[in-house]
Design a protein that fits this description.
Layout: E1 3-11, E2 17-24, E3 29-33, H1 40-55, H2 63-71, H3 80-101, H4 105-109, E4 117-125, H5 128-140, E5 145-150, E6 172-173, E7 179-182, H6 184-202, E8 207-211, H7 218-227, E9 235-237, H8 247-254, E10 259-261, H9 268-276, E11 282-283, H10 292-305, E12 309-312, H11 320-332, E13 336-340, H12 346-351, E14 357-359, E15 362-364, H13 377-380, E16 388-389, E17 392-395, E18 400-401
Parallel strand pairs: 4-5, 4-13, 5-8, 7-17, 8-9, 9-10, 10-11, 11-12, 12-13
Antiparallel strand pairs: 1-2, 2-3, 4-15, 6-16, 14-15, 17-18
Helix pairs in contact: 1-3, 2-3, 5-6, 7-8, 9-10
Bound molecules: 2-keto-3-deoxygluconate and magnesium ion.
Length: 403
């Protein structure tokens, strides 16, 4: 089965997405998500200019060889743009293989290891009261695990907090990134109080998670982890900026709160030290940024040796194609931990009709051949790309900081 073409499709149904559609001479096509939030056009250009021409005429069934060609064959390796592009090609080829064989992708990986994929939803509030109530709303919706974020008292625009009742959406439309303010001290004081209130009001059955979003120094993260121990979190995420993995050594010495990291990683090399030294508990590299299914199955095997489980990123900037690919992987992978699930808008769901379903706190990818996701090109044409960026952050005195 030869690859005859590939289309780089950019649309904005609710938010911007880049979708790769690989076509074959047997009439089958496969989809991959190539969205990199706020950097969409960079990945689209890398695909159109440097990847798609190299795919034409290749055998679509040779997934591993094509992965090695795109990764090992390139002198300039790694990095989010390159790896998002490779991931999209890889995902599309697994979709094609599943369709060609008439089997869902999870079956090609080794079959289901569980009946459903435990997911966590996002509760956030512009005040602590609102965040506590939102956790209750998610429990009522059937979620067994909930991430909780609240605005820092006295500060507008904290990470993780939506503007209105809608799902939190971090990218903002505009020509340049919006600016936000962060303050370490009030943040660190407030988070343990938030989780104490959630435990008081909603009990101990629900798994609770929190995302620091790269904003603490190792010693600060160590203290926050310690302060949260009595609330028994499922995980504390991205406690420090993860370009310096050695920082996790210090955090690990001080706290038993489980640690998750990796949504911005893109190859196993980003995670190797953390796995080898058992400095983390969950790895968040998703299929669409972590080299596709082909690379992630190796990463997961290496992680398993270090007692690390998966906990894939699944925010709204990962399209339903990425979500479906994640769910097939999650249903199979032996060392599965949890899957993030931030519901997409109705516009997004309409452009990407999908087979995955939510029930009783679990998602299932469905049994359609391949990934079980489509792309409605005619509908997508009604939503043209609009520039949008992730915000940047400063401290109160104007110093640039990690967002
Ligand atoms: O594009 C960036 C978002 O996906 C990220 O800020 C969301 O940290 C995030 C999460 O854990 O979902
Ligand atoms: Mg995160």
């Amino acid at each position: 089965m030869k690859i005859t073409g590939a289309d780089v499709l950019i649309s904005s149904p609710g938010r911007n997405f880049v979708t790769l559609r690989v076509r074959t001479d047997e009439g089958l096509h496969g989809l991959g998500d190539a969205t990199l939030n706020g950097r969409e056009k960079a990945v689209a250009a890398y695909l159109s200019e440097h990847v798609v021409p190299c795919l034409l005429g290749r055998d679509a069934s040779r997934i591993e060889d094509i992965w090695q060609y795109l990764y090992r064959g390139a002198y300039w390796r790694r990095g989010p743009v390159t790896m998002a592009a490779i991931s999209a090609v890889d995902t599309a080829l697994w979709d094609i293989k599943g369709k060609a064989l008439g089997r869902p992708v999870y079956d090609l990986l080794g079959g289901a290891s569980r009946d459903g994929v435990l997911v966590y939803g996002h509760a956030s509030g512009r005040s602590m009261d609102e965040a506590v109530n939102e956790v209750g709303r998610y429990i009522d919706l059937g979620y067994r695990a909930v991430r909780a974020q609240s605005a820092i008292e006295g500060l507008a625009g904290t990470y993780g907090v939506g503007k209105g009742k809608d799902n939190y959406e971090p990218a903002e439309r505009g020509a340049v990134p919006a600016e936000t303010v962060f303050a370490t001290r009030p943040y660190m004081d407030q988070v343990p109080r938030l989780f104490e209130r959630i435990r008081d009001e909603h009990g101990w059955e629900t798994e609770l998670l929190h995302d620091v979003h790269h904003r603490l120094a190792p010693i600060e993260a160590a203290r926050l982890g310690k302060d949260l121990e009595s609330c028994r979190l499922f995980w504390l995420e991205d406690a420090v900026a993860c370009d310096n993995p050695e920082g996790f050594r210090l955090i690990r010495q001080h706290t038993t709160t489980p640690l998750a990291v990796g949504e911005v990683f893109n190859t196993v090399h980003d995670a190797k030290l953390l796995i080898d030294e058992q400095l983390i508990d969950y790895l968040r590299m998703p299929v669409c940024h972590g080299g596709g299914i082909t690379h992630l199955r190796k990463v997961a095997a290496i992680a398993d040796m270090g007692f690390v489980r998966t906990g894939f990123h699944g925010a709204t900037d990962l399209s339903p194609v990425a979500m479906a690919a994640a769910l097939h992987f999650d249903l199979w992978v032996p060392n599965f931990g949890i899957q993030e699930y931030m519901r997409h808008s109705e516009e997004t769901d309409a452009v990407f009709p999908h087979a995955y379903t939510f029930e009783d706190g679990y998602l299932h990818p469905g049994d359609a051949p391949g990934l079980g996701v489509d792309y409605d090109e005619a509908l997508a044409a009604k939503y043209p790309y609009e520039p949008a960026f992730l915000p940047v952050a400063r401290l109160a005195d104007g110093t640039m900081f990690n967002w």
